[in-house]
Task: inverse folding
């Protein structure tokens, strides 16, 4: 099943192998990536903070690769909200455009230790709170497949840079689909990690003024790439905890597909590729169930997720109606989340993976207002944009891992699918997505 691809540039591990084999030097790899950014980004505006001189210096300073440097000499960019020493971190706010980080975030530090050379940072919406990536500091990022549409958000610049072939891989964050939706909109691979697997130290709002903060509820850091192998490598490099290794091939697993959600219709442009993927998997010998009594109450889960999401994003500040969540409210939310986690754990005793859309629509047209504050067109019907968050919350609220892979496309726009699994089984989700991709695209 074909899906729109924009580049045949090598992935991160393939590029690292070329460098290790002497086919090109780190400086040549960096210069090639810089040239692609300078050529391609004029019409996309994904890489909004350029650090090319320091990147060239870093590439020149690299010695010989070691076994602990799987990405030796590989150039990449990273979401603007991650601190890189000497570069601004403003989260899309003019008031903080001169906020210069004094140290690297943990994710950046680990990637540098693995041999990565950072070229700069990619665009985000203000406060990382939209399925678009536009702000008054850096402007608007366009989807590489259609410049009149969004690349997603909040890691939209990240996905656009990877999809267009500027860099082989990226790192974003996700609380409301901010890795998965851009991967879906742009036709690349993305992984929402199990909550707590990767440290987000050094990924703090500028209001924290460099003091640091706890890793917020629900929010995770996760990689984007053009293949599953690179996702797994990025996960191994950045994980703060031991990773659970995959145990079985896809044909030996039990899979449940969920396409419909009580809070939001699914567009035909998403439903079609999802159903085609299920049919292809069944033809390959994979059992795919379409319903199960074990699925948690999705309407209740979405309501609980939205309450927790709003409190987490506002850090307890009053909502528009002036109400503020109390400590008792927060503990009640944690109890509801724990019950939801247990319900999904019971489902995963019967099933190995759950397949679901990352969003109810393909890449949305640009809008002057946040997607969540307006309406989205689903097969001719206007639906509140915030309703689309139901597919993000599916894995976010119970703290589960989910890998997005491209599965097809409609009208030149790509469509993705998320592969959810039990908590901490991140590598298994990536491996299953890889096998699904082989079935669909071989």
Result:
């Amino acid at each position: 099943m074909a899906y729109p691809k924009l580049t045949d540039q090598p992935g991160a591990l393939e590029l690292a192998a070329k460098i290790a084999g002497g086919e090109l030097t780190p400086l040549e790899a960096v210069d090639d990536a810089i040239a692609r950014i300078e050529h391609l980004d004029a019409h996309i505006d994904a890489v909004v903070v350029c650090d090319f001189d320091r990147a060239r210096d870093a590439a020149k300073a690299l010695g010989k690769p070691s076994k602990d440097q799987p990405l030796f000499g590989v150039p990449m960019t990273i979401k603007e909200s991650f601190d890189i020493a000497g570069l601004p971190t403003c989260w899309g706010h003019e008031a903080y455009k001169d906020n210069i980080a004094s140290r690297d975030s943990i994710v950046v530090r680990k990637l540098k230790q693995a041999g990565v050379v950072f070229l700069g940072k990619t665009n985000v919406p203000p406060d990382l709170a939209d399925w678009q990536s536009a702000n008054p500091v850096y402007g608007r990022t366009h989807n590489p497949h259609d410049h009149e549409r969004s690349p997603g958000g909040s890691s939209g610049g990240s996905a656009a840079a990877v999809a267009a072939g500027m860099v082989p891989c990226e790192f974003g964050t996700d609380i409301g689909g901010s890795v998965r939706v851009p991967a879906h909109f742009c036709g690349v691979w993305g992984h929402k990690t199990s909550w707590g697997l990767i440290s987000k130290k050094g990924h703090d709002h500028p209001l924290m003024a460099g003091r640091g903060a706890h890793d917020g509820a629900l929010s995770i850091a996760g990689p984007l790439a053009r293949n599953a192998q690179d996702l797994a490598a990025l996960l191994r490099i950045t994980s703060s905890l031991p990773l659970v290794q995959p145990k079985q091939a896809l044909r030996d697993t039990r899979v449940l597909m969920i396409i419909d959600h009580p809070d939001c219709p699914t567009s035909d442009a998403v439903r079609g590729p999802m159903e085609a993927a299920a049919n292809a998997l069944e033809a390959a010998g994979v059992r795919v169930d379409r319903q199960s009594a074990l699925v948690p109450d999705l309407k209740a889960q979405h309501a609980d997720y939205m309450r927790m999401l709003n409190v987490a994003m506002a850090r307890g500040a009053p909502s528009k109606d002036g109400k503020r969540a109390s400590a008792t409210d927060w503990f009640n939310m944690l109890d509801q989340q724990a019950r939801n986690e247990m319900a999904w754990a019971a489902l995963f005793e019967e099933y190995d993976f759950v397949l679901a859309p990352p969003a109810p629509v393909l890449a949305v047209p640009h809008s002057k207002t946040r997607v969540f504050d307006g309406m989205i067109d689903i097969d001719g019907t206007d639906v509140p944009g915030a309703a689309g968050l139901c597919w993000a919350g599916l894995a976010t609220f119970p703290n589960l891992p989910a890998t997005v892979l491209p599965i097809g496309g409609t009208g030149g726009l790509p469509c993705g699918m998320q592969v959810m699994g039990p908590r901490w089984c991140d590598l298994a989700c990536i491996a299953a997505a890889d096998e699904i991709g082989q079935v669909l695209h071989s």
About this structure: DSSP finds twelve helices and 15 strands in the chain. The radius of gyration is 20 Å. The chain has a mean pLDDT of 96.
